[in-house]
Design a protein that fits this description.
heterodimer; A: mainly alpha; B: mainly alpha; 20 helices
Chain lengths: 516, 535
């Protein structure tokens, strides 16, 4: 057996979390933070090795498989395909960024700095595990396990309403998770009668024919859980509360990484295991996705609270992602997977830079700011770039993905695409209005004398901005690994792309190359 | 002139029954010790005797389990012993082992003396009225009731006999043997004695009432089948198409007796009061072991004796299971006392276990032989998981104290996470286990019973169960919020350092909850190898 790279990748942050938790607790001590940052950078390095060794178009790689609970058919089975690898990379890139940006945030709660950084590392390890799991049972276990660190991160270190926000988040997630549990058990019942015996391996489950009605019910259990996680309209209300109460770093982990589990799960499990039911559900899902796009955007425009605003923009963006997934063609899915990565970067930048802003002023309300660009030009500049990336300005990375999703939507059904496109216009409104109100005009009294960003803060944000610009001009490294995986997913669903009515896009072009 | 039929002495399989006999013998010796040993030696002698007895019985159980006869081509193992009165089969041995292990750690809890400043946490002199001079005198003289050890062993004997009984009379005798000592023990708390005595009286009255139902049911079933033996009852049911009033009435009334013991709604009303009033060590023992024994007996009665009438009793269990889950979880939401909350949580768990009862019974009913979780396996595993979580959780309750004794009001637990991270962490973990979060034994147990229920087509039951699990998670998490995210009120709770005894109990319960969540394979396989019940 070759070197278990993925297991190491999962284990390093988890072990690091334990170490950080056990380090001596001293007020103002920097040691736990330094160790945590070091561990996350080490994890990034390991992931980079994995990424370099990844064979584009080679299907699931770095696979490991050990029987875990034979009576249940559960395995410890991990492996990454292009989609999983993309999200693993997102996780390992964002974790050190968030830690560096949250350097001072561990002191705000009743709890020690150690626990803040330990929970973050634990979350990183579990999230990597979720994206790498190729066994449904293992996925479910890790999916639920991620709730615990994020629960303590929100509840222990957030703002005034953190306790309420944490428990609301937890209950929504648990409700979805338990519905998924019913479906997970249903899969067991399906598999126990198959030629494989009880099994949870994706590779085996996907070969088992599932009765149409059973499949649809099981699909629903998974889909509702993922829709809550993503979050989609109408089960999104926990997200604004959570981001308003949590620290910026926690919000990034929550929105940029954990919520991706929802959309990732839709591709991997809903489409992968229940192709018939996925096509059956497509019309309803697409309507919900478009509603999410528009509703999230409209609510964002009306917000006066910055973290809540960003949360609603994410609801809108997740609408785009789900739209791309369920149009069931390669443009949409490549776009969606890319979107997950890019949205992770742009939202992280937006949360962190506004987090710095809010921390300086001590208020989350847009109306308490004005003219910040005069006193803190660097902050304002980064804010503008992050905002522009969020509204998908051409040249920045989210544009590529949003464009592909809309191409996919047009290829699927004109009307969904038309309404979704309105979301772009609204996006320009909510971002630019926020920028205008907080940054432009004469500085209000409260922001006069505000410090500009320090070295640490700029260092934390720089990788994100570099990636956003770089991938905006040259998305090939990611599309190259995403394309074959999307192709596999669509083959499993049993759909093929409609004949192109437009010249081949970047996505389709790359796919042809990889197929050669 | 009637000549007496020639009397044949029944043959007793002493080696097969040795675990039962050891516990009974040690209990009787305990009574003698109480009569003859000098007062200052009694604590030492009784506690050592009880621990040694349980350990010996445990070793014998393992030996018995390893040497069981194999029947039905490996589908079942065991032998009917004691002239048809006791069935020593795979499930019996598994339950004996579980009961003895939990009994062992319960004995340790009983023997804890440091928490009450050097005396047992039981009343110094139970006969002295609360608040009188006699009570004060008993307290100043440091009197102790070391009878609790033999009483507990008698109860344990009854619990072991209950799921092993192979005819109705033995089952009834076992029910009484396990109940009577518990009624007494419930009334022996050192603190808050009126509450404790009230609990004992309530438990006794309602318990006696439910025993009445049970024996009436036995009479009806006997009237129907003409025999007390399970195998004969089963034959009578199989031979007669359709249930008759006698049989259905009998099943219903016997079910009342059993459902009372497991604390299923609507026969659950005693649970919170008794759990709250009893000495916490007794609550731990009672909550874990009584439920295990009663579920074992219920499985045997319904599967072995009433197996042929499955379609008659399944709807009843459906209704009871849903009602129990809903009542347990919803009422638990409003509790303000940790022991009452755990009591309602125990009721909810009863509901979850009941979903397993209607599950797929035999391996043969699945198309793949050898694969698939059977309901016996699922329920047995759940009982083990539940037992360890419960004993450990109540053990934690005993160490969180204020000057008035145990601080059971939930509001007193606020801020415990800061005061005592280890105790709060363990308790939080146990609560997560009860909530069924993955990587705890509670999750594995839930998965197993739900899978067995779903495989038999009981999906509405499973959907209700998962929804209720979500509700249940709320009240468990509420306690975690209280411990970690709330500021303590006033002085705040104090965690008294217990002796090694209680520490062992908490550690064992914690580790079992963790290990059965992470690597449940061995225990699941053990439960699977227990196989089916024999007749």
């Amino acid at each position: 057996m070759s070197f278990p790279w993925l297991t190491v990748l999962i284990a390093v942050p988890l072990v690091g979390a334990a170490v950080v938790a056990l380090l001596p607790k001293r007020a103002g001590g920097a040691l736990p933070k330094q160790v945590a940052l070091g561990v996350s950078v080490l994890t990034l390095a390991i992931a980079a090795v994995i990424g370099v060794g990844y064979d584009v178009g080679g299907g699931f790689q770095y696979t490991e498989e050990v029987t875990w609970i034979s009576a249940f058919g559960a395995h410890y089975a991990v492996g990454v395909d292009g989609i999983g690898l993309t999200l693993v990379l997102l996780t390992v890139i964002l974790s050190p960024v968030v830690m560096l940006a949250s350097w001072e945030d561990g002191h705000v709660g009743r709890w020690s700095v150690n626990s803040f950084f330990a929970w973050m590392l634990a979350l990183e390890g579990l999230a990597i595990g979720v994206f790498a799991a190729t066994d449904v049972f293992l996925f479910y276990v890790l999916f639920e396990a991620t709730l615990i660190p994020i629960y303590f991160l929100i509840g222990g270190f957030g703002g005034a309403r953190r306790s309420y926000a944490a428990i609301k988040f937890l209950l929504y997630s648990l409700l979805g998770g338990l519905l998924m549990l019913a479906s997970v058990i249903g899969l067991y019942v399906v598999s126990v009668d198959s030629k494989f015996g009880p099994t949870y391996l994706l590779s085996e489950l996907s070969q088992i024919p599932i009765d149409q009605n059973v499949g649809r019910w099981l699909f629903l259990g998974f889909f509702i859980a993922f829709a809550i996680k993503a979050p989609m309209f109408p089960v999104h209300t926990w997200l604004p509360d959570a981001t308003a109460a949590a620290t910026p770093g926690t919000s990034v982990l929550l929105v940029s990484i954990l919520d991706k589990i929802g959309t990732f799960g839709m591709i991997r499990f809903c489409l992968g295991l229940f192709p018939e039911a996925s096509q059956w559900a497509t019309p309803v899902v697409l309507v919900l996705a478009v509603v999410s796009v528009l509703y999230g955007a409209l609510l964002a425009i009306g917000q006066n609270n910055i973290p809540r605003l960003i949360a609603y923009t994410s609801v809108s963006h997740f609408g785009f992602i789900v739209l791309g997934i369920f149009v069931l063609n390669s443009y949409g899915q490549v776009g969606s997977t890319l979107y997950m990565f890019n949205h992770g970067l742009s939202t992280a930048a937006l949360f962190l830079v506004t987090g710095f802003l809010i921390r300086r002023r001590g208020s989350q309300l847009i109306s308490d700011f004005g003219g910040v660009e005069k006193v803190a030009p660097v902050l304002a500049g980064i804010f503008l770039v992050a905002g522009l990336s969020s509204l998908s300005l051409p040249g920045l990375s989210p544009f590529v993905s949003e464009f592909l999703v809309l191409v996919g939507a047009f290829a699927h059904n004109l009307w969904f695409a038309v309404f979704a496109t309105l979301g772009i216009v609204l996006a320009a409104l909510y971002i630019l209005l926020m920028y205008q109100r907080t940054m432009t005009g004469p500085p209000v009294a409260a922001v006069v004398g505000m410090r500009d960003l320090g070295l640490r803060e700029v260092t934390a944000l720089a990788p994100l901005l570099v990636l956003i610009v770089l991938l905006g001009f040259y998305p090939k490294p990611l599309t190259a690994i995403i394309n074959p995986a999307v192709h596999d997913t669509l083959t499993q669903v049993g759909v093929s792309d409609p004949a192109p009515k437009v010249p081949a896009t970047a996505g389709a072009g790359a796919q042809e190359e990889s197929n050669q | 002139m009637i000549t007496a039929a020639e009397f044949q002495a029944p043959s007793i399989e002493y080696s097969l029954l040795s675990p039962l006999l050891v516990i009974a013998t040690v209990a009787i010796i305990g009574v003698l010790v109480e009569a003859f040993a000098p007062r200052q030696l009694r604590y030492l002698v009784q506690s050592v005797l009880a621990v040694a007895g349980v350990v010996v019985a445990l070793v014998l159980t393992v030996l018995v389990g390893m040497n069981l006869d194999v029947l039905r081509g490996g589908a079942a193992r065991g032998k009917v012993a004691a002239a048809g009165a006791v069935a020593v089969d795979g499930p019996t041995v598994f339950l004996w082992g579980t009961l003895l292990v939990l009994g062992l750690i319960s004995v340790l809890l009983f023997a804890e003396r440091r928490l009450e400043g050097g005396v047992l946490s039981f009343a110094g002199q139970a006969a002295a009225l609360p608040g009188t001079e006699a009570e004060r005198e008993a307290s100043t003289r440091g009197l102790e009731h070391t009878e609790v050890f033999p009483l507990m062993l008698f109860a344990l004997f009854g619990m072991m006999l209950f799921p092993a009984s192979n005819d109705l009379l033995t089952m009834f005798v076992a029910l009484e043997v396990l109940s009577l000592p518990l009624y007494l023990l419930a009334g022996l708390a050192r603190r808050r004695r009126l509450l404790s005595q009230e609990a004992a009286l309530k438990y006794f009255m309602l318990g006696a009432f439910s025993s009445g139902f049970f024996i009436y049911g036995i009479a009806l079933v006997y009237g129907y089948a003409g025999s007390m033996e399970f195998a004969a009852i089963n034959e009578a049911i199989s031979g007669t198409p359709g249930g008759t009033v006698l049989l259905l009435g009998g099943i219903g009334l016997m079910a009342v007796g059993l459902l009372f013991k497991v604390g299923a709604a609507p026969f659950h009303a005693w649970t919170p009061d008794v759990y709250q009033g009893s000495p916490t060590a007794v609550t731990a023992f009672m909550a874990a072991c009584t439920k295990i024994a009663a579920f074992g007996a219920m499985l045997r009665l319904f599967y072995v004796a009433f197996g042929g009438a499955r379609w008659d009793w399944t709807p009843m269990i459906w209704v009871i299971a849903i009602l129990t889950m809903v009542v347990g979880t919803v009422i638990a939401l409003t509790q303000t006392d940790v022991k009452r909350m755990l009591a309602y949580s125990a009721i909810a768990h009863t509901g979850f276990i009941l979903t397993g009862l209607v599950g797929v019974q035999q391996r043969g009913s699945l198309s793949v032989p050898g694969g698939g979780i059977t309901s016996v396996q699922a329920v047995l595993f759940y009982l083990v998981a539940y037992g360890f979580m419960t004993v450990a959780a109540f053990a934690v309750v005993t160490v969180v104290r204020d000057p008035g004794g145990e601080a059971t009001a939930l509001s007193r637990w606020a801020g415990l996470g800061k005061e005592s991270p280890v105790v709060a962490g363990v308790f939080a973990f146990l609560l997560l286990g009860m909530a069924g979060i993955p990587l705890t034994s509670g999750f594995t147990g839930k998965w197993a019973v739900f899978a067995s229920a779903l495989a038999s087509g009981a999906w509405p039951l499973v959907v209700v169960a998962v929804l209720m699990s979500a509700v249940a998670a709320f009240f468990y998490v509420r306690v975690i919020v209280l411990m970690y995210f709330s500021e303590p009120i006033g002085e705040g709770p104090v965690v008294t350092m217990p002796s090694a005894l209680t520490t062992i109990v908490i550690a064992v319960g914690f580790l079992a909850t963790l290990l059965l969540g992470v690597v449940p394979g061995p225990v699941l396989d053990l439960a699977a190898s227990a196989g089916e019940f024999i007749r």
